[in-house]
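Title: Prediction job returns without error message
Component: structure pipeline
Severity: low
Priority: P3
Assignee: unassigned

Description:
Job completed but the reporter wants confirmation the result is attached to the right record. Sequence as submitted:
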Amino acid sequence: MRRSEVEAYSAGWRGRGTRFVRVPFTEGTLVIDLRDPSTRSLVWRAIAREDKSNAAKVEGKLDDMVRKSFDKYPPKAK
């Protein structure tokens, strides 16, 4: 099932202001965001999907989804 959420981020000069971003996702999707703590800006994002309709089956795959996501960090320079 496709859904979306709205996330709020600090934006603007010295973090004054807020930026809203709609993040679409499908149930069974794991999103990992790494942010710079001083600016809260997004540094890296991983998205892993598991095509299972049963939540218990997806939960059983979480460790593997996280491990595969972090295998791609840090990003390789082009």
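Comment from assignee: result matches the submitted record. The longest helix spans residues 55-70.
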